[in-house]
Amino acid sequence: MKKEINGKTKIIGVIGKNIENSLSPLIHNQIILKHSLNFCYLPFQVAEIDLGKAIKSIRALNVRGVNITFPYKEKVIEFLDEVEESTRRIGAVNTIVNNKGILTGYNTDVIGFKKSLQDNGKFVIKEKKAVVLGAGGAARAVTCSLLEEGIEEVSIFNRTLEKAKKIKQNFSSFFPRSSINIFSFEQNDLKEKIKEANLLVNATSIGMESQLDNTPLPDKKLFHPSLLVYDLIYHPARTLFLREAERAGAKIINGLPMLVYQGIESFYLWSGLKVEGKEVLEMIRQIK
Ligand code: NAP
């Protein structure tokens, strides 16, 4: 935060359901402090029933913009004036920019996920096979990143098959060279697809702080050493899913790098300032 908040301070923030443990306020306020900017980033805990009212208040209170987090990334779209073209295809918004009362939705999770993988031992997505667990807003962004980078095959597993079906419908015609498979959580399919995969991503909310003893992959024998196992969750830093993957010899990555990289892209949309992602990530790791 800038040392002094005054009449010209631009307000930005994050809207979500359970955001007590969100690291976004820390990340953004550290950037603001480091660059002496007249911005302030606040957490806005919003119940589902109030989401529409909260989005309207962005205009009323002249808030410069917000991040949208779990579980509102898809639902928020109906309350916006515009959605940027590629974000419309993704069907999930994680950033809103307020330009003189016009609210536009963007998705910076796609680039955040890509950059976090490039960082991690330069994992090359092209011509690899991935399994994505989940079909909510985050899974949409992850799938889009993988397809944009030329993945050979992505297999999406979700409790509600209909939601996975919609992702396939959204993306198939845009990425004809990649195959998109969809499944409900069926043990035999999971076993076969994880065996062939190079990357396994948890894009469900299973394992977050309210469900520490839960994992989206109860059969830990399915992990293997040639997998990169990615959990989008960053609180806790090591979910049961990641701990079991590591014990099986897989490489692991949690959601913090993605959070930082998507955050700096959102910050750029609000402020025009480009920040070096690696530096911010290092700064946050030192604080936490
Ligand atoms: P969302 O849209 O609400 O989707 C939640 C997903 O989890 C859905 O696929 C849902 O399945 C599944 N799920 C939830 N509870 C389940 C259960 N008990 N059994 C089986 N499946 C279950 O949420 P989201 O925005 O995609 O976020 C998902 C996770 O990613 C959250 O933990 C979020 O914090 C994290 N995330 C992290 C970053 C980052 O930068 N690190 C970015 C985005 C999201 P159904 O469709 O069947 O309901």
Q: What does it look like?
A:
This protein is of the alpha/beta class. It is built from ten helices and twelve strands. Helix 4 (109-119) crosses helix 5 (137-148). The longest helix has 16 residues, at 256-271. The protein is globular. The mean pLDDT is 95. The chain binds NADP nicotinamide-adenine-dinucleotide phosphate. Residues 70-71, 73-74, 109, 112, 134-139, 158-160, 163, 203-206, 208, 232-234, 255, 258-259, 262 line the site of NADP nicotinamide-adenine-dinucleotide phosphate (NAP). NADP nicotinamide-adenine-dinucleotide phosphate binds next to helix 4, helix 5 and helix 9.
Give the tags.
12 strands; 288 residues; six-stranded mixed sheet; 19% strand; binds NADP nicotinamide-adenine-dinucleotide phosphate; 10 helices; alpha/beta; 37% helix
Give the arrangement of secondary structure elements:
Layout: E1 10-16, H1 24-34, E2 39-45, H2 51-60, E3 65-68, E4 82-83, H3 85-90, E5 95-99, E6 102-106, H4 109-119, E7 129-133, H5 137-148, E8 153-157, H6 161-171, E9 179-183, H7 187-196, E10 199-202, E11 228-231, H8 240-247, E12 251-253, H9 256-271, H10 277-287
Helix pairs in contact: 4-5, 4-9, 9-10
The protein binds NADP nicotinamide-adenine-dinucleotide phosphate (NAP).
Concise overview:
The protein is an alpha/beta fold. The chain is built from ten helices and twelve strands. Helices cover 37% and strands 19% of the residues.
Helix content: 25-40%
Largest beta sheet: strand ordering: 2-1-3-5-6-4
Number of helices in the DSSP assignment: 10
Shape: globular
Weakly predicted, low-confidence segments: none
The count of β-strands is: 12
| Secondary structural class | alpha/beta
